[in-house]
Specification:
Strand order of the largest sheet: 1-2-3
Strand content: 5-15%
Radius of gyration: 18 Å
Helix content: 40-55%
């Protein structure tokens, strides 16, 4: 893998997005276990457990801001990869797994994310930026409520 080695991360590509190199099995298992614990806490107590900053923080903030009807939606780059594709680009089975979540209602989707995401990450050798995984999972577990339309006052 090309890139610059920094504190256990390989800074890959022109974007400088940190991607963990293939972790040793025991390191990956420890990362899986830590993610499993964090996901349970994030699902149960979202106000107490927040993800740290990651390579997708700015994109998620823009996405959240686009939900505000008072603000103009950000312009998307043509053919830009979506956030899950960027976060899980080295995890071949993630797209198929995420498609199984799409039709589910939020309670079942949350339960499956907490139960299955750590194993999905381990299956790809933990070749992900774990802060980005946590930040994306946090948004999946705790989606922003849809904006409330403005209430107009009755006319006389």
């Amino acid at each position: 893998m090309k890139g610059v080695w920094m504190r256990g991360l390989v800074v890959a590509g022109a974007l400088g997005v940190p991607v963990s190199a293939a972790a040793k099995p025991e390191q990956c298992k420890a990362q899986r276990d830590e993610l499993a614990t964090w996901l349970k806490q994030a699902a149960e107590k979202p106000t107490e457990v927040k993800p740290g900053p990651s390579s997708i923080s700015k994109d998620l903030a823009e996405l959240d801001a686009s939900l505000d009807p008072k603000k103009k939606a950000p312009k998307l780059e043509k053919n830009a990869p979506n956030l899950p594709d960027r976060v899980f680009k080295k995890c071949a089975g993630m797209n198929a797994w995420m498609k199984t979540l799409s039709p589910l209602q939020l309670p079942e989707k949350r339960a499956r994310i907490v139960a299955e995401l750590p194993a999905q990450i381990e299956a790809c050798g933990c070749q992900v930026e774990m802060p980005a995984v946590k930040e994306l999972a946090y948004h999946w577990l705790n989606p922003a409520p849809p904006p409330t339309p403005p209430v107009s006052s009755p006319t006389k």
